[in-house]
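Thread: "does anyone have the structure for this chain?"

Original post by V.I.:
We have the sequence but no experimental structure in hand. Need at least a predicted one for the grant figures.
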Amino acid sequence: MLLKNRVAIVTGGATGIGRGITLKFASEGCSVVVADIKDKEGQETSREASSKGSDSIFFRCDVTDFQQIQEMANFAMKRFGRIDILINNAGGVPGNQGLLKDITPELWDTVINLNLKSVFLCCKAVVPFMQIKGYGKIVNISSIGAVHPSVSVNHYHAAKAGVLGLTYNLAFELASQNITVNAILPGPVRTPFWDPVLKGVSDPESQFAMIARKEIPMQRLGAPEDIAGAALFLASDLSSYVTGQVVIVAGGQPLPVTD
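Reply from O.Q.:
Generated one for you, tokens below.
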């Protein structure tokens, strides 16, 4: 029970990596606010988390809207009296237009707002409550593509690189207040994130197998549980002297793939 009596907010917690983190935290005694815009999936995930013995609840929140984020943080404080952990996981790419020539200024802003500005907004709302308690764990989910892109997804990778810059600066700013800020760089993970990217692909399984074979030394895509394990370390007191760090969870990437 590494997170017994702790309270976490997990953005994008309804599905994929966020769901994996939510369930892992719940199994370690943590109460989780599952923040997402997916009502059905969010409620299902919170119910499953609660079945593990934690007091977890879904809160509908658009992480590009600061008013909704502030309401979420206020709700968590009213219900639990504290916020110990913030997992900034919400993000994604609407569609598969990632080349410079295809990205409109409007699409650029949409992706930056969802993947970078949201992290800033969530930290801005939650950190004051952590400062009151003199304790906090912030884990930002970036992407291996931010530093080692294997395909061109310029807006998304730029946003995720920005998350790293924000991680380093917040870690520096908050270190003396017993609030740690770290980041995880997942490699390819089998989640609904891929749905818009693979839209129109006739055989997704073959596509996943090809990605694993060509790009990942461990020869498999990651699972949400793989990221959840690293998040658990960074959100628990096992990492009490770790801040401003980046953990790559990518099956060996960016090491070269060998036969």
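V.I.: this helps a lot. The radius of gyration is 18 Å.
O.Q.: and The beta strands are 7-11, 31-36, 57-60, 85-88, 136-141, 179-186, 246-249.
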